[in-house]
Amino acid sequence: MKKIFLYLIFLVSISSCVSTKETTYFQGEPVSKSAIYKLNNTPYRLQVNDVLFIDIKAENPDLVSLFKNNNAANNSSTAKGDGLYFTGYTVDRHGNIRIPYIGEINVLGYTEKEVREKIESELGKFLKNPDLVFVTVKLAGIKFVVTGEVGSPGTISLSQNQVSIIDAIANAGEITQYGNRKEVFIIRKSLDGVKKYKLDLTNIDVFQSENFYIQPNDVIYVAPLKQKAWGTGTTGLQTFSTIVTVLSFLASTVLLVKNL
């Protein structure tokens, strides 16, 4: 009976410990996949709540000053990071942005290049030589949410053209010891509805995933390991200490009942 009891303790300890394979990133050998590279380099199409940085320049600044956002012109020092919330152009719930004198332009589902071409076309209605005007359209960084088993969950905004899942996790304080690196989910709201993707960060093939680069307004969730729900610890020593504590409590309870 004693041997069986010790054997059960051993099995529980082994099953409760987190193995190296569950905590080591990018295992295996990389495989070249040109088709995935093409997917990762497909231009992003704008969604509701995206913020755009739009700049219109000409040899004569007065020529295009009417079409500029006054807040952006007067506060050029804040035209980056969170300041773009006030100085940039936010895509409203109808998919439009508003530019002085031009009015509303629908940009939902368009790429940055297509938006630039639309603005240039609209400027042609007001200017004699629109070819002399230089228009810049850029997505004002990538904003996303990281939650679950990470060091610093919350909303993050990075002033980059592309943000990988690795960048996102690193900026959220890394995955904790209780985080499941094999179950990292991306929840994405698109024109086709809400979609959910699962990534395994312990596998080197994650670099070839079509979802390796996140999109603006993505929600990234890191699921917990089962060991957290059990409360037995993530190492053999922690598990052993937990079992000893439970057994000591049971033994004390039995002795107490016998002495009553």
Strand order of the largest sheet: 7-6-10-8-9
Provide the gyration radius in Å.
Answer: 27 Å
Structural class: alpha+beta
The 3D shape can be described as: elongated
Helix content: 25-40%
Let me know the largest β-sheet.
5 strands, mixed
Please give the number of β-strands. Answer: 10
Number of helices: 10
How far apart lie the N and C ends? 27 Å
Q: What sequence of helices (H) and strands (E) makes up the elements?
A: HHHEHHHEEEHEEEHEEEHH
% residues in beta strands: 15-25%
**What do the pLDDT scores average to?**
80
Unreliable segments (pLDDT under 50, ≥5 consecutive)?
72-80
Index terms:
single chain; alpha+beta; 33% helix; 23% strand; 5-stranded mixed β-sheet; 260 residues
Walk me through the structure.
It is a single chain. With 260 residues, this protein is α+β, with helices and mostly antiparallel strands. 33% of the residues lie in helices and 23% in strands. The strands form 3 sheets. A 5-stranded mixed β-sheet has the order 7-6-10-8-9. A 3-stranded antiparallel β-sheet has the order 2-1-5. α1 (2-16) crosses α10. The longest helix has 24 residues, at 236-259. The model is unreliable at 72-80 (pLDDT under 50).
Write the layout of secondary structure elements.
Layout: H1 2-16, H2 20-23, H3 34-40, E1 51-57, H4 61-64, H5 70-74, H6 84-87, E2 89-90, E3 96-99, E4 103-106, H7 112-123, E5 134-139, E6 142-148, E7 154-158, H8 165-171, E8 179-190, E9 193-199, E10 219-224, H9 226-230, H10 236-259
Parallel strand pairs: 6-10
Antiparallel strand pairs: 1-2, 1-5, 3-4, 6-7, 8-9, 8-10
